[in-house]
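To fix ideas, we reproduce below a protein record of this kind.
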Amino acid sequence: EGIVKGEKDKSLSWMQNLSEEQRENVEILLSSISNKVLHDPIVAIKEESQNGGALPYIAALRRLFRLEDG
């Protein structure tokens, strides 16, 4: 979500030339792409967490996406 907002903020200069409806459509598209990219990994982590095997995956995700604890 933060990445999408950051990229959207960077695009404000050319997005201001769009109509309100077009800007909303761009935001919907960005959100949809983000959700589709993240859906399968999130489902896999949830499945692994039920088996107690999610910790290595969580560690990998934290490292790949440079996420901090807390």
Remarks:
- The radius of gyration is 16 Å.
- The CA atoms of residues 12 and 23 lie 10 Å apart.
- DSSP finds four helices and no strands in the chain.
- The mean pLDDT is 86.
